[in-house]
Amino acid sequence: PLISFLEIPLPEVGDRQVFHATSARYPSLSASPEKPSSSNPSSSPSSAPTTGAPLPPGVDVAPGSDGKIGSGAYLMRADSEPAPSGTGNLMRGYREKGVPERVWRHTTEEIFKTIRGS
User: Fold this and answer.
1) Tell me: the pLDDT tens digits for 54-68?
2) Is 37 helix (H, G, I), strand (E, B) or coil?
């Protein structure tokens, strides 16, 4: 197919998901709002709770889909880097239209029902 060169092999998709889930660059929303970063020397990695593998020098916590640093939901480019900050407007529109609630309702009412077989 014409766009097959854009496809990411499933094993690599899994590897990327594990990376995003285990890197302090992409903390959950419940992590401390004061996250250590290489550009914020006043924050202390030993005193500020974070989730995931420590950040190397020069790497900061990523902006979330709402444009706030470390807000828990992240838009990613194909190269696993955070999407440009302006793309959060797309998510804002989805939030205003109630899309997250509709997706969750579909997940719990239809997909889980199919998985359970009931």
Assistant:
1) 899 999 999 888 888
2) strand
